[in-house]
Amino acid sequence: MKHITILIALSMQNENMEEQNYIKTNIGEFYGTYYGQLGVNVNPDEMYILTNETIENCKTYNYEKEEIGNIYDKSNSKDKYDIYLSGATPLIYIENPNAKEQKELLIFRDSYGSSLAPLLVQNYQKITLIDLRYMSSTLLDDYIEFNSQDVLFLYSTLVLNQNVLK
After folding, report:
1. What confidence score (pLDDT) does residue 8 get?
2. SS (H, E, C) 79-100
3. Who has the most CB within 10 Å: 2, 85, 97, 125?
4. pTM of the model
5. Per residue, what are the HEC states of the chain?
């Protein structure tokens, strides 16, 4: 994941990804969404989060829950993947109070975008994550003012091939 993040950051002209001094923390075993459908026993993956001072100082706003929170939600959840930005939600934003520039990033994403977004926050004052599986695109203008933000479309092929975007 780190190498993919560096490539994305470089293509977005955010070259200082290597200098972010991440702390890698193991949060336990992870089986994934389709584990129960496999029909065979498999070993779990180990799940990690990367954090640093910037990530720790960021705040999130979840429009669905109308709650302010942290990037990593360490409360006990049945789905360990919910640690990233409190799980599946149609619209959430991250604010970085220590951003060097007033840049904003819009990420149209599925759940994988939740794990990547914290690694891009260093270079943005605000990152807005939009999941069109849970929100109609006709509502976007009610929540987002489109004006010269960077935009990243980050969907798995499963989501794109099933045409579940609204």
Report:
1. 61
2. CHHHHECCCCCCEEEEECCCCC
3. 85
4. 0.83
5. CHHHHHHHHHHCCCHHHHHCCCEEEEEEEECCCCHHHCCCCCCCEEEEEEECHHHHHCEEEECCCCEEECCECCCCCCCHHHHECCCCCCEEEEECCCCCCCCEEEEEECCHHHHHHHHCHHHCCEEEEECCCCCCHHHHHHHCCCCCCEEEEECCHHHHHHCCCC
